[in-house]
Structure to design on (552 residues):
């Protein structure tokens, strides 16, 4: 613009040669350029110039005609509202435009605007693809975290359905087979309500043979198949939408992920397959944990001290208390039991303590009990039984030693015996002991007497010394067997002092005449107070009491 031109004066028309130069410059640009502005001050917005690239991107654009006549609403709106740019879709292509106001030394030239347009279709597609990929990765990562560590089969099944509902499909059904005739299922909808769950038999899948094949692992389920699901007892209303069924791989269990919805796109199958892998891993882990937990429960139940009768068939009253060193395991190296009365009229009993703590000691105590059960078939005398057990433990240790990296110790301390009823209503106990603390007798006159019997460890030496004796209990008198976890419990004010025999005898003196279970509970209570929550060894107590006022 001429600096001498007065403000507001119309711009001079460029010479014809210059106009031709401008046109050639626009034609040579690969970027689309459109110049718009009013036809006259305050007049209608028209297209003042446009290069061929702009004509290709915006078909219908004619130089000299109103912008509104080109049929491109986004351009018209941006021109009228003086927007800095816009983005629109034309003939399946995404166009992005930016506006540059033409001025000369800060003065607007005839209010002209130059629009630069680019085809950004591929950029937007790439960006959208990246966003989808990021969303898929985030979904799979969050799903993996949510499924990891659940380790409960039914809860994992419900979680698998809930996570996918609304993301993979509006409705998601997960079927699970574990080798039995029962097929578990969970169905979730995108409304966020609690998943519906249930069970059905494999016979219910006869109407859907392809699902049955997927569950058995014999064949995959093809995508986009119109699986006939109406007969399955898993719906409120039979589905009418599109269905994608994806096998759920697993090492322990197998399943099928069924996606139902009206707008399932092509991306749902690969994403569903990746999700199914995570679901299969989680379900297999939960199923394996369930099997291991069941096995552990069965084994633990076999190792726990058996429940004792309130009164034996021979009239003997019994009580017990047990506190393992690792209380979360509920088992330990101490053990006891009272067996049914034999044909000879005797009631066998025992209390023992194997070396070690925890599950290893519990396993060894189980073996000791099993060995005693087998030996009782050929021998009933307590002392002879204990000698046979000593040999059995030594022979078992010799058999294990060649293949064991660290030989497992197999010695134990024990008191075993049997009781028979006396004519006066009392009971006669035959006792045999090896390396175990001697029992106590709570006499009717208030005395607490230690039984004079001792022996060497069982399973440690071939020529082990077995102590044996007999004692008579008058009606109402009690014999207490206990493990060394009682007297060797460290506690008290300093936390390091043994509970000891003197405190145990004083505790028993206060229990004379009490029922056998009360005796055991009282000793365990006092011992717990002494420990004050500190670590301790396994503790076992078994009280045997002759009934009062009963005659044979």
């Amino acid at each position: 613009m001429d600096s001498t031109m007065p403000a507001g004066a119309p711009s001079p028309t460029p010479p014809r040669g210059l106009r031709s130069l401008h046109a050639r410059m626009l034609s040579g640009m690969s970027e689309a350029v459109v110049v718009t502005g009013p036809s006259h001050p305050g007049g209608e917005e028209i297209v003042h110039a446009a290069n061929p690239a702009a004509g290709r991107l915006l078909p219908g654009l004619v130089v000299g005609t109103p912008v509104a006549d080109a049929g491109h609403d986004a351009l018209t709106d941006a021109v009228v509202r003086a927007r800095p740019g816009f983005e629109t879709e034309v003939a399946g292509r995404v166009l992005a435009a930016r506006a540059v106001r033409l001025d000369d030394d800060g003065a607007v030239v005839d209010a002209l605007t130059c629009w630069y347009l680019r085809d950004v279709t591929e950029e937007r597609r790439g960006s959208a693809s990246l966003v989808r990929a990021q969303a898929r990765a985030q979904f799979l990562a969050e799903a993996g975290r949510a499924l990891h560590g659940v380790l409960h089969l039914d809860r994992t099944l419900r979680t698998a359905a809930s996570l996918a509902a609304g993301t993979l499909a509006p409705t998601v059904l997960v079927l699970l087979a574990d080798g039995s005739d029962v097929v578990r299922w969970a169905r979730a909808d995108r409304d966020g309500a609690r998943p519906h769950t249930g069970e059905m038999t494999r016979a219910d899948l006869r109407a859907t043979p392809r699902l049955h094949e997927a569950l058995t692992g014999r064949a995959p389920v093809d995508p986009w198949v119109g699986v006939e699901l109406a007969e399955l007892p898993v719906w409120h209303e039979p589905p009418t939408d599109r269905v994608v069924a994806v096998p759920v791989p697993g090492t322990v269990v197998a399943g099928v992920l069924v996606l139902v919805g009206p707008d399932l796109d092509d991306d749902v199958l690969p994403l569903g397959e990746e999700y199914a892998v995570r679901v299969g891993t989680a379900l297999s882990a939960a199923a394996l944990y369930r099997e291991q937990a069941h096995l552990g429960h069965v084994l633990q139940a076999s190792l726990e001290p058996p429940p004792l009768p309130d009164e034996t068939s021979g009239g003997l009253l019994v009580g017990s208390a047990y506190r393992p060193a690792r209380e979360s395991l509920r088992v330990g190296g101490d053990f006891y039991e009272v067996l049914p009365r034999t044909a000879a009229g005797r009631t066998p009993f025992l209390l023992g303590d194997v070396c070690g703590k925890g599950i290893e000691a519990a396993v060894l105590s189980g073996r000791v009990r099993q060995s005693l059960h087998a030996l009782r078939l050929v021998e009933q005398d307590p002392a002879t039984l204990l000698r046979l057990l000593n040999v059995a433990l030594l022979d078992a240790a010799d058999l294990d030693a060649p293949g064991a990296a660290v030989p497992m110790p197999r010695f134990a301390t024990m008191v075993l015996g049997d009781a028979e009823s006396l004519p006066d209503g009392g009971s006669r106990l035959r006792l045999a002991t090896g390396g175990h603390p001697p029992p106590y007798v709570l006499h009717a006159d208030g005395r607490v007497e230690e039984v004079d019997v001792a022996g060497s460890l069982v399973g440690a030496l071939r020529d082990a010394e077995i102590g044996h004796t007999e004692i008579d209990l008058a009606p109402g008198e009690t014999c207490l067997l206990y493990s060394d976890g009682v007297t060797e419990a460290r506690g008290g004010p300093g936390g390091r002092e043994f509970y000891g025999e003197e405190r145990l005898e004083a505790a028993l003196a206060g229990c004379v005449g009490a029922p056998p279970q009360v005796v055991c509970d009282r000793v365990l209570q006092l011992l717990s107070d002494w420990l004050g929550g500190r670590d301790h060894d396994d503790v076992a107590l078994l009280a045997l009491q002759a009934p009062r006022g009963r005659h044979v």
Residues 1-12 have pLDDT under 50 and may be disordered.
